Amino acid sequence: MSAALQVTAFGLALLSTLFLLLATCTDCWMVNADDSLEVSHKCRGLWRECVTNMQDGVRTCDQYDSILADHPVKIVVTRTLMITADLLAGLALATLVLGLDCITFLKEDPCVKLKMCYGAGVILGAGSILGLIGSVWYAVDVYLERAMLVSHNIFLGVHYDFGWSCWLGMAGSTGCFVASVLLTCCLY
């Protein structure tokens, strides 16, 4: 039972870590259509902003200024939290691989392997919380930006939605959290 639980947690952690990495690297955290005719589709991300012409499918991307330049707080905080979550999830995966029962590393001392799995669960839990905070922070800021425009009667045909990168970050963080719970609570 323990080995099956470890492998299940490892598979979930691996998939969720890939989701987190993909969310950090992609550029569709906030989506808006410039007008009601949907002539173009704009995605804003953590690293650049891309516009896709809906008629011919041409996509143009503009890189943000230098990483050291002044950026909105939501971008800086989300970048920091997501990169930290990625690093912690990667560290947890490496620790978990070494702690799996099916790996022959430290086979003669199962207590150490169990502690490695438990430690990987704790690290994965910390990474998942940071990733979830980063994703939700960005989503709340997008919502507040949209609400502020509506409350000031500034519509301008702009409609903000959460992009698939934001949803992917939330899904990856939630998956890492579930894998963490499996490793820390259910393994014993």
UniProtKB/TrEMBL annotation:
<keyword id="KW-1003">Cell membrane</keyword>
<feature type="transmembrane region" description="Helical">
    <location>
        <begin position="118"/>
        <end position="140"/>
    </location>
</feature>
<keyword id="KW-0472">Membrane</keyword>
<protein>
    <recommendedName>
        <fullName>Claudin</fullName>
    </recommendedName>
</protein>
<feature type="signal peptide">
    <location>
        <begin position="1"/>
        <end position="28"/>
    </location>
</feature>
<keyword id="KW-0965">Cell junction</keyword>
<comment type="function">
    <text>Claudins function as major constituents of the tight junction complexes that regulate the permeability of epithelia.</text>
</comment>
<dbReference type="Pfam" id="PF00822">
    <property type="entry name" value="PMP22_Claudin"/>
</dbReference>
<dbReference type="InterPro" id="IPR006187">
    <property type="entry name" value="Claudin"/>
</dbReference>
<dbReference type="InterPro" id="IPR017974">
    <property type="entry name" value="Claudin_CS"/>
</dbReference>
<comment type="similarity">
    <text>Belongs to the claudin family.</text>
</comment>
<dbReference type="InterPro" id="IPR003927">
    <property type="entry name" value="Claudin16"/>
</dbReference>
<dbReference type="InterPro" id="IPR004031">
    <property type="entry name" value="PMP22/EMP/MP20/Claudin"/>
</dbReference>
<dbReference type="GO" id="GO:0005923">
    <property type="term" value="C:bicellular tight junction"/>
</dbReference>
<dbReference type="GO" id="GO:0005198">
    <property type="term" value="F:structural molecule activity"/>
</dbReference>
<dbReference type="GO" id="GO:0005886">
    <property type="term" value="C:plasma membrane"/>
</dbReference>
<keyword id="KW-0732">Signal</keyword>
<keyword id="KW-0812">Transmembrane</keyword>
<feature type="transmembrane region" description="Helical">
    <location>
        <begin position="162"/>
        <end position="187"/>
    </location>
</feature>
<keyword id="KW-1133">Transmembrane helix</keyword>
<keyword id="KW-0796">Tight junction</keyword>
